[in-house]
Design a protein that fits this description.
single chain, alpha/beta, 5-stranded mixed β-barrel, elongated
Length: about 210
């Protein structure tokens, strides 16, 4: 009796929704995939071996060796952010106030994973706090970090960032309200990422 071996193919995880993911197996060819078991160690950016389960669906059989892995952790748990990336883009803003503690931890995480960091100061059109934010970031420039000041609502920002993005896989990280979604919508017009107003009373953004 002949037994049919399951079809195994390779793909890259391009989006994650809990234990379910979207994988690209060829340019423009997407599959809904899922991880078996109670805990998933899959990160967006992972190259994975897939086994076909149904039309348009597959299970993740294994994770192929990674170049790097970016994650955040605290005393209780770790969260995988992305794998096989070239650049961590840390998005800050003149308003609401950004956390230098989060900036430092992001830089440390990037260095630990041997990933190049790029710091963006967004919302330069809000001049009230621009000078103070620039002063706070000067020590990082002195240390040799690239710090770009821009406005995610201005089309010229696309041209400003293009030399830093071409040929690289990048991840945007930062606090709520820094403008990550607005920046993503500018760079990828069909992304349709949700945006929300910041809370002036709390000097913070609202999670989207």
């Amino acid at each position: 009796m002949n037994s049919t071996q399951p079809e195994i193919q390779q793909g890259q995880i391009i989006a994650g929704y809990g234990r379910h993911y979207l994988a690209e197996t060829a340019p423009g060819v997407l599959l809904q995939v899922f991880a078996r078991g109670k805990h998933s160690l899959v990160a967006v950016g992972d190259q994975v071996a897939l086994c076909a389960e149904a039309v348009g669906q597959a299970s993740i059989q294994s994770i192929l060796p990674r170049r790097n892995l970016l994650y955040r952790s605290d005393a209780f748990k770790s969260k995988l952010l992305a794998a096989n990336i070239d650049q961590v883009i840390i998005v800050l803003a003149t308003e609401p106030s950004f956390s230098e503690d989060l900036l430092a931890r992001s830089l440390i995480a990037a260095h630990a994973a041997e990933i190049t960091p790029l710091v963006l100061l967004n919302k330069t059109d809000l001049q009230k706090n621009f000078s103070a934010a620039t002063v706070r970031l000067q020590p990082y420039r002195t240390l040799g970090y690239t710090v770009l000041a821009l406005c995610a609502q201005q089309q010229i920002t696309t041209e400003l960032l293009k030399p830093y993005l071409l040929g690289k896989t990048s991840i945007l990280i930062g606090q709520s309200g820094m403008g990550k979604s607005t920046l993503l919508n500018l760079l990828v017009p069909d992304a349709a990422a949700h945006t929300r107003e910041i809370s002036e009373k709390l000097d913070s953004g609202k999670h989207t």
